[in-house]
Amino acid sequence: MGGPMHLSDHLIQQSWICMVSTEERMHALELPQRAEVMLSLCSGNVFAACLPTRLPSILLLGLLYLVYVLTGGAVFWTLESGPMELELQSIREEVAKLQRQMPCLNQEAIVKVAEVRGGVLHKASSNGLSLRDNNTLGVWKFTSSAVFAATVVTTIGYGNISPSTTTGQIFCVFFALFGIPLNVVVLNKIGKYMLVIARMVSDFIEKKINRKRGIGVFIHLISFISGVLVFFVVPMMVFKVHEGWTASQAIYYCFITLSTIGFGDYVADDNPDRVYPDWYGPLMGVWIFFGLAWLSLLINHSIEILETVNKLCKCGDSAEDTDQADEPATDDQMTEVKTPSNSPQDGGDTKTANQEEEPKEEEPKE
C-alpha cells in the first residue's frame, strides 16, 4: 500500500504544480486557447495542458507545408527541365556560330552582337544562360524549382521563370489552388504563435518587476525592432556580400519580397555568374517563410491601430452630436416653439370650439 500511495501523492503534487503554472499562463492566451486548456484540465489531461499551446499543430502544418512545396518543386523540375535543356543547347549552338563567324571578337563583343540581333540574348536570359551580368536570370534546377513553388503559394511571383509546357502550366494552376490557402493558414498560425510568445514574455517581465504599466508597449517595441533586425538588416548585409547589391537595393528587395509584391527586378540566388554557398538557398527560404509571418502580423497590427483610431473618431463625432442635443434652447428657439399656435391644427381646435358654441345661439327664446 505504501508504494502506490507514494506514487499517487507524487502524481498529485506534479499535477498541482502543472495546474499552477498553467493558471499563470492562462491570461496570456486568447479565448479559444483558454478554452482548449480548460478542456484539457477538465478532461483530466493535465500534463497535455502544460505543453506549449498549439505547438504540435504548428509543427504538423509546417511539415505539411514544407513537403508540399518541395514536392511541387520536384514536379516543376521534372516537367520543365527537359524542354529547357533542349532550348539551352540551341542557344549554345547559336553563340558558337557567332564566335565562328567573328573569331576576332572577345566575349564582351559577342554579347554586343547578340544584343544587336536581339533573339540570342533574349532567349539566353529567359532560360538562365548568362552572356553577361543580369539580375533576373532563371534556370530550372531543383533549388530554383523549389523557390519557384514557394513564390507560387506565397503569391510573390517574381516572374523571372515560369512554366512553358502545357503540363507544367496546368499543374501550376492546381498547385496554387491548394497551396495558397495552405500558405495563408500556416502563416496565420505562425503569426499568432509569435504573438502568444510576446505576450508570455510581457507577462513574465511584469511579474518579475511588479509593474504592468507600459510593459506591453515596451515588449511590442522590442519585438518590432528585433523583427527589423532579423528580417531586414541582417539579410541586407548578406545580399550585399553575395549578390553585390547596394544597401538600398537590398532593403528594397527585402520589402518587395516579404510584402509579396514581387516585381522580379531583383531576385536573390539566381545569378549564374555568381557562385553561391550551399546554405544560401535554404536559408533564404527560411527567411522568406518566417519573414512573411512576421510582416503579416505587423500589417494586422497596423490594421487594428487604424480601426481603433477610426472608432475613436466616430466616438468623438457622436459625443459632439450628444452635446449639441443637450444644449438649452435659446430665446429664438423658444419663440419658434410658441409660434405654431396659429397652425392649422390650432385653427382646427378653434373651429371646434366655435362649433360647440353654435348650438347655444340656435336655442329658441321664450
Automatic annotation (TrEMBL):
**Is Transmembrane there in the keyword field?**
yes
Query: Transmembrane segments in this chain: where?
Result: 58-79, 139-161, 167-187, 217-238, 280-299
Please note every region of biased composition (Acidic residues): 318-334, 355-366
**What GO molecular function annotation could you give as one example from this UniProt entry?**
potassium ion leak channel activity
The places in or outside the cell where this protein is found are: Membrane
All residue ranges annotated as the Potassium channel domain in the record: 137-194, 228-306
Q: How does it sit in the membrane?
A: Multi-pass membrane protein
- Protein name, entry field: Potassium channel domain-containing protein
Species of provenance: Synaphobranchus kaupii (Kaup's arrowtooth eel)
